[in-house]
């Protein structure tokens, strides 16, 4: 009997559970019939049609907050992605959309609080499900976050400019101040939210950081072969003792290399050579290094791959490598000639100190003194360099960032040097990698990312747009000069990114702009402007960092004394060129 009772009870339990499940499913279907489900997707954009990250989106029903469904959980709000996209999912009682006021509210510091009403006719309907794709544009609001970020930015640059602190420490304080204010005052009042930690990390261009690190390692290994001293000897031999001729040869070599590679890589490679030349001649290395920086930034302007702003413009517009060459090479050549003349007046006295009485004897001395010390390591290093450079030249075909071959080549060369015990690992890491320079770039990227997030760059771009008022000549001059001045003090990468949609719009609506003249104005301004200050371009910071580690330091204003005036001259040449030939 007991044997029959247990199976019977088990069967009864299963039957009751099935009946309960069936009733539950039927009741759920009935409940779902009484509920409307809404699916909304889209993007939040600024006035330049650029995505707005980390904007808070909430739903209001008759003015009151309504729950959203995210990952099967109810939430009060959702946040836009790094691409400005969002998805909303929510439920309403059946037919409530006909009776109630349904709104989406978007909140983001430095933007006006925006509310968008949703109506039934906006949706595509399938049964009890409603679908909508909607892009929403936010207008800028110059609130507390904007002014705090702007003041912190100016103070950080003042500390760097007047050398009250080392530039790396000043940049670190500026970046950290914006973050600490975001997470203290910004927590109490969203109007004080400047930049989140996640956005700050995104603002750091790791492609630049890894490119610099990789090339520093390669140069650090090659330095042990004596190749840079040998290059100094060969340069002097070609110039036959004329320091001015030597300088001109160096500048044009740097300009051509910057056009074919990029200006940062060129200066990383050639800075040790210039220092060795100056030491041998007993002249100050900065008399060769500073004009060399000018040449690298000017030369890099000539091609699509020579400077990051050109890469960005080419990618955005589809302009080809040869279009850049045809449009920009002539003005680059003229600007290089102007550099030669300018440098003759500025450093002629310094170059006279390098005059040698017996040139042949000095050349023989350099040949004996500056020999290749390790041909095996040099051969392997040159092979790695050729491999890296070939990837630099073809990185567009591979859709590969330039930092990848730099790190790959550095890893191969570093491994070989350590295995063969030709280089001490700790010594190379401590002395040859310019950690202060890398940290400076990291903190500077965060500072610029903060003022970009707060809207300073967008305000400047809008000012250019409004002031041009449909006049092509005014637009050319404004884009060129504003880009140049801004690039002298702000990293030209985020500024160029902000200007791209503005220039694209002006190129469409202005008669005569179909010649791409406004794009060339942006390229020339962003690239030439990098010469204006010590922190205006990556090549500047890298070169001065290497010189500083070798014991040759220059102040912010000491650099500007030479560089800013030449920047004005080169931009003026570009302005005349654009107005005459476009």
Can you tell me the overall shape? elongated
Radius of gyration: 31 Å
Structural class call reads alpha+beta
Instruction: Give the N-terminus to C-terminus distance in angstroms.
Output: 105 Å
Number of structural domains: 3
Model description:
By secondary structure, this protein is α+β, with helices and mostly antiparallel strands. It has three domains: 34-137, Protocatechuate 3,4-Dioxygenase, subunit A; 144-194; 206-458 and 471-488 and 503-581, no CATH class. 66% of the residues lie in helices and 10% in strands. It has 25 helices and twelve strands. It has helices at residues 2-33, 96-99, 144-161, 167-183, 185-188, 197-203, 206-222, 227-239, 243-260, 263-281, 286-300, 308-317, 321-352, 359-369, 375-393, 395-398, 403-419, 425-431, 435-454, 456-468, 472-489, 492-509, 517-529, 538-549, 556-581, and strands spanning 35-45, 56-61, 64-66, 68-70, 73-75, 77-79, 85-93, 102-107, 114-118, 124-126, 129-133, 136-137. Strands 1, 7, 10, 11 and 12 form a five-stranded mixed beta sheet that branches. A hairpin with a 2-residue loop joins strand 4 and strand 5. Helix 7 (206-222) packs parallel to helix 17 (403-419) and helix 9 runs antiparallel to helix 13. The longest helix has 32 residues, at 2-33. The protein is elongated, with a radius of gyration of 31 Å. Mean pLDDT is 86; it is low at 6-13, 15-21 and 23-32.
């Amino acid at each position: 009997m007991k044997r029959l009772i247990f199976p019977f009870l088990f069967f009864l339990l299963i039957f009751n559970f099935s009946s309960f499940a069936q009733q539950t499913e039927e009741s759920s279907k009935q409940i779902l019939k009484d509920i409307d489900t809404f699916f909304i997707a889209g993007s939040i954009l600024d006035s330049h049609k650029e995505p707005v990250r980390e904007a808070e989106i909430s739903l209001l029903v008759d003015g009151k907050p309504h729950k959203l469904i995210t990952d099967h959980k109810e939430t009060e709000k959702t946040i836009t992605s790094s691409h400005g996209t969002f998805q909303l999912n929510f439920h309403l009682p059946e037919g409530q959309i006909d009776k109630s006021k349904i709104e989406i509210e978007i909140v983001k510091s430095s933007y006006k609080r925006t509310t968008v009403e949703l109506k039934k006719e906006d949706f595509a309907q399938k049964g009890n499900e409603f679908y909508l794709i909607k892009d929403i544009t936010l207008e800028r609001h110059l609130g507390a976050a904007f002014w705090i970020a702007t003041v912190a930015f100016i103070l950080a640059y003042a500390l760097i400019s007047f050398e009250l602190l080392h530039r790396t420490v000043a940049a670190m304080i500026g970046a950290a101040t914006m973050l600490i204010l975001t997470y203290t005052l910004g927590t109490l009042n969203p109007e004080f939210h400047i930049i989140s930690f996640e956005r700050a990390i995104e603002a750091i261009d790791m492609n630049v950081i890894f490119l610099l690190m990789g090339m520093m390692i390669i140069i650090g290994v090659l330095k042990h072969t004596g190749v840079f001293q040998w290059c100094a000897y060969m340069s002097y031999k070609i110039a036959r003792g004329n320091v001015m001729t030597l300088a001109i040869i160096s500048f044009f070599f740097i300009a051509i290399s910057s056009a074919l590679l990029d200006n940062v890589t060129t200066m990383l490679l050639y800075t040790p050579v210039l220092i060795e030349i100056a030491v041998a001649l007993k002249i100050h290395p900065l008399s060769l290094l500073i004009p060399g920086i000018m040449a690298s930034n000017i030369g890099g302007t000539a091609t699509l791959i020579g400077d990051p702003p050109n890469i960005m413009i080419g990618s955005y517009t589809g302009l080809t490598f040869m279009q850049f060459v045809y449009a920009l090479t002539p003005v680059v050549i003229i600007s290089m000639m102007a550099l030669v003349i300018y440098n003759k007046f500025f450093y002629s006295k310094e170059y006279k100190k390098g005059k040698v009485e017996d040139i042949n004897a000095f050349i023989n001395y350099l040949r004996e003194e500056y020999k290749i010390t390790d041909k095996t390591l040099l051969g392997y290093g040159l092979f790695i360099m050729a491999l890296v450079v070939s990837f630099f030249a073809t990185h567009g075909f591979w859709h590969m960032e330039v930092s990848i071959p730099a790190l790959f080549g550095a890893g191969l060369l570093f491994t070989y040097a350590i295995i063969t015990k030709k280089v001490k690992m700790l010594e190379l890491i401590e002395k040859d990698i310019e950690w202060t320079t890398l940290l400076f770039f990291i903190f500077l990227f965060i500072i610029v990312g903060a003022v970009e997030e707060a809207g300073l760059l967008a305000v400047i771009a809008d000012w250019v747009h409004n002031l041009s008022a449909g006049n092509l000549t005014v637009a050319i001059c404004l884009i060129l000069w504003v880009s140049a001045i801004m690039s002298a003090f702000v990293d030209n990468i985020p500024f160029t990114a902000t200007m791209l949609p503005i220039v694209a719009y002006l190129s469409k609506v202005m008669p005569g702009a179909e010649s791409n003249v406004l794009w060339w104005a942006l390229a020339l301004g962003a690239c030439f402007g990098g010469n204006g200050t010590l922190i205006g371009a990556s090549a500047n910071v890298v070169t001065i960092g290497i010189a500083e580690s070798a014991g040759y330091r220059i102040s912010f204003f000491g650099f500007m004394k030479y560089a800013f005036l030449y920047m004005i001259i080169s931009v003026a040449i570009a302005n005349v060129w654009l107005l005459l030939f476009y």
